[in-house]
Write a structure and sequence with these properties.
heterodimer; A: mainly alpha; two-stranded antiparallel sheet; 4 helices; 3 strands; elongated; B: 388 residues; FAD/NAD(P)-binding domain; D-Amino Acid Oxidase, Chain A, domain 2
């Protein structure tokens, strides 16, 4: 399989190749990759990509996912995208 | 080991200063970051850059900072696209005659330092920025070179350039104590108990600086203040400028990436001095207030999806200006923090001028009035153009 054709992050269109290159450049943790590639910061909030990225990091680091550093889970509301107009009525009260 | 300089804090200020000093051949530099680069206030900021300030200091520094941003691609070897530099301007809206007069006074200062800030009537705002709802607007100012840069990418670019010049950067290395002996700085003690030595230490740890300086017996009136922010899904480019109001507090900008990033100051700001107090939670109150302001001033946002909220710390000082320069009480100890919500945008210029100061060269913009000793002497500097 061509790693250029494998999309790891659907929100930001990040391919497996881009992910692997970023890891090689030194962005070798979930939190760094997020800031560098914006992976996990799209509408899915990491639901699709997080485990894929962690699995890739685990392979590179030759360590189980449980041993990788991942910052304590931070909840970023609204967790599922919501349009402004869904809140507008309540917001004007 | 012994270094010429140890910098504590891997945000824009620390990383850019490391680069600027390395460029001036300041010797072996060690930069220590508690988490990851941009892990503090730089990484949670709104990414705006603007020269539309009111104090002479801020206007001159930001005019210089914009120049640095404009040439950062050549300087650091990354493209403008990578750095997400976008100069769509800042449109500053006034909602009262008094506020408009204030903006015009600020524009005079900006004109004096070579910026071509335009003064606009509500009709001109409507003509030039048809997506902006001018309801309640009595006037505005617009400076086209203001805009956006990506705080992560800019900091990473400085870090890579600094590494190439020999700067040693260590992430995940919290400092527990600044070592002082006979009134002179000696180095730092790390959380793992080991020590690194230098007769110069620069603290660029944002709101975390206060607690660090306390370990050296220094009392700096610099506190963290939680500010919340949100971001939407990306859209095609529909909005050029950052739309901002100092009186209502909102700021809204479309990033080159397409998403809209926006914030509002807290209603009752708390002053936190101890890292244990820092709170980064997101609130429903902010979401509701932001919705109300955003959909009023930019009605097209109604159909845009909100993706994520987060919070970060403004690192505040009593006069909303940086505390930058040597600390009077301890020889060799320097601080550069307290951007008061503007640390990222000032970072490049502050780093450049500070590196000149630290390497004994004359500064183009004299930073000495911003030295931390001013708070004790009561020599505060006033800035009228701030949000919150």
């Amino acid at each position: 399989m061509n790693e250029e054709n494998i999309i790891v992050c659907r929100c930001e269109d990040i391919t497996l190749r881009e992910l692997r290159e970023a890891i090689k450049e030194g962005y070798d943790s979930w939190d760094k990759l997020k800031r560098y590639l914006r992976i996990g910061m799209g509408p899915c909030g990491g639901k699709t990509c997080r485990l894929l990225v962690l699995r890739e990091l685990a392979m590179v680091k030759n360590a189980p996912i449980s041993k990788l550093y991942v910052r304590k889970t931070v909840v970023r509301p609204p967790t599922r995208s919501v349009p402004f107009n869904a809140l507008q009525k309540e917001a004007s009260l | 080991m012994t270094y010429e300089l140890i910098i504590i804090g891997g945000g824009i200020q620390g990383v850019a200063t490391a680069y600027e000093l390395a460029k001036r051949r300041a010797g072996k530099i060690l930069l220590l970051e508690k988490t990851i680069l941009t892990g503090g206030s730089t990484g949670s900021c709104a990414a705006g850059i603007r020269a539309q300030f009111g104090s002479e200091f801020n206007v001159r520094l930001m005019a210089r900072s914009l120049e640095i941003f404009e040439h950062m691609d050549e300087e650091l070897g990354y493209t403008k696209e990578y750095l997400e530099l976008w100069q769509g301007g800042y449109l500053v809206l006034a909602y009262s005659g008094k506020e408009f007069e204030g903006l015009k006074r600020n524009a005079e200062v900006q004109h004096r330092f070579g910026l071509d800030t335009a003064i606009l009537s509500p009709e001109e705002v409507e003509r030039d920025f048809p997506r902006v709802n001018i309801d309640g607007v009595v006037g505005a100012t617009y400076h086209s070179r203001d805009g956006h840069a990506d705080p992560f990418r800019v900091t990473f670019a400085y870090a890579e350039a600094a590494r190439k010049l020999g700067v040693e950067i260590r992430e995940w290395t919290p400092v527990s104590e600044i070592l002082v002996q006979n009134g002179k700085v000696r180095g730092v003690k790390l959380q793992d108990g080991s020590e690194e030595y230098s007769d110069r230490v620069l603290v660029t740890a944002g709101a975390w600086s206060t607690a660090l300086l306390k370990t050296a017996g220094i009392d700096l009136p610099l506190w963290g203040e939680k500010h919340e922010i949100l971001i939407t899904e990306p859209w095609e480019r529909v909005l050029g400028p950052m739309v901002i109001s100092f009186s209502r507090g909102f700021y809204i900008q479309q990033r080159p990436h397409g998403s809209f990033i926006m914030g509002l100051p807290p209603v009752n700001p708390e002053h936190w001095y101890e890292p244990e107090e820092f709170d980064f939670s997101s609130s429903m109150d902010f979401l509701m207030r932001m919705t109300k302001e955003a959909t009023h001033v930019l009605p097209f946002l109604q159909g845009v999806n909100i993706v994520r909220q987060w919070a970060g710390l403004y690192e505040m000082t009593p006069d909303h200006h940086h505390a930058i320069g040597p600390v009077d009480e301890v020889e060799g100890l320097w601080v550069a923090a307290g951007g008061s919500g503007h640390g990222f945008m000032f970072g490049p210029a502050m780093a450049e001028q500070l590196s000149k100061w630290m390497s004994g060269n004359s500064m183009d913009i004299d930073l000495t009035p911003l030295a931390p000793g001013r708070f004790k002497k009561g020599a505060l500097v006033v800035e009228p153009a701030v949000v919150g």
